[in-house]
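In the previous chapter we treated chains in isolation. Here, by contrast, the input contains two separate entities that must be folded as one system, with a combined length of 587 residues.
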Amino acid sequence: MATITAGTSRPQAAPVLSVRGGIAGTLRSELTKIRSVRSTYWTMLLLVLAGVAWAVADCAGEAAHWAQTAPLDKANFDPTQSSLVGLALIGQLIIVILGAIVITSEYGTGMMRTSLSVMPRRGVLYGAKAAVLAAVMLAISLVTSFASFFIGQYLLRSTHETATLSQPGVLRAVLLTACFVTVSGLLAYGLGAILRSTAGAISAAFALLFLLPQLAKALPNTWNADMVRWLPGGVLVSQITATKAGSAVPHMFSAWGEFAVVGGYAAVLLVVGALLFSRRDA
Amino acid sequence: MIEARGLTKRYGSRLAVDDLNFRVAPGVVTGFLGPNGAGKSTTMRMILGLDRPTAGTVTVDGRSHRRAASPMHEVGALLDARAVHGGRSARSHLLALAQTNRIGARRVDEVLGMVGLSDVARKRSKGFSLGMSQRLGVAAALLGDPQVLMFDEPVNGLDPEGILWIRTLMRSLAAEGRVVFVSSHLMAEMENTADHLIVIGKGRLVADCSITEFIARSSGVAVLVETPAPEALARAVTAAGGSVTREPEPGRLRVQGLSEAEVGGVAFAAGVPLHHLAAAKVSLEQAFMELTADSVEYHAALPVA
């Protein structure tokens, strides 16, 4: 049997971590982590496929029925929204899986204790994880958003009602859709840090983004109208992707306003998650 | 050096660790013993800064691990070999840990070689046997070439070859002048590995001494005798200042407080014939059982023969 000692060949003198050094190294570490598990790729693939498939179905359907479409509907038709709303709607629900498991899988496997014993500065670990997650989600969301937009416009070409990025609000809608999906993932990350369970975090995210807006529909109309603009999911996806007055949703804040609402939920959950992450026993 | 001062951890109404004071010195293997539920793992988690003490402090080289300038160089720990993401390859797992402390990929490959996992470095750890997982955990602990190493129940579930490997590793790490702190609930394991013992029961310190001292202190050396006249011998021994307990076999007595020669002399003077006379070495297991008898958290109901 080989003799095993740690000192047979000493590694480079132990680096002393300044806080900044700790951040750079931990960012690299988190990138290694997210790149080295299959669930990341599956979730990303699902996001791209679902976003694009929805754009194809929506836009090809509009194009096929264009001849029978009423003039008023034609006037209100928003080709940008038609190509993006699917990504905003379904992408929001898919991305929460990635956002949650990045942190809950470490609790589920017990890896968190190892991670925290090699990087005991909890704020650095929590922040690096969130930053890498955000970058990865934003990258894939942007790819999907632009792909959905261009594929959708290509399929709508027979209607002569296609959008280009230079038209008012269009680039904003494409970018905002990607940012909205990313922020929804960060919201789930915050829930993951709070609940420390994959099933719990994903269920809570679904309840917040999907179930709550459905329940709000049961409210009397006036209440619903007052309430729904404050919810982080549901009809707000139409508002975020709208580029025309006719396709915007009444009683809602502007696209930026609705994005800020989701951002507000995410920020609160991220901060609560951070506080619990640094205070609780691991 | 690990140093605990007044270390206390309370979970709700349960006191898991109760005012522990100890030091773990470099250069020797220190066994951390106690029955299941005695607070060993909780103590180790507090050393790593994972759990926050309710009271007291525990430091590594004078400071809390949470403030370590170079965490992996200061402490390497193997708490739970299965606590890895099974979908990640062995190499990616170690690389992710190394990067946090700016340790290069070369060192990752080096430790993979040391623990004999080079051939499966790119395999997902999900398929690893417990022995292989244990080696991966050891590799992670060694990455930063740490001065302090902690192993929580490292031989649990390992085959004899794995046990020997861990034991040899711990001894060689201590011989290099490192702090090696190993927990176990099995005394027999420590008898072969540890030089020094810290024993706890129900979260409280029971003993902090060398192995030899531990055995001597808890029972002392006993003398086993066999005689056709146990009553007469017991009287004579008690008169000479020894204490006597009956063994299960008829005619057998266990004498404490007298040496073999003294027992022989007492028997001769009393005219009691002896069929057998020998020193009985008290095993660590026995010593431990006696010492922690009052502090075992969960007693099994013993079947009545």
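Chain A touches chain B through 48 residues (CB under 8 Å). The radius of gyration of chain A is 22 Å. Compare these points with the single-chain example from earlier in the chapter.
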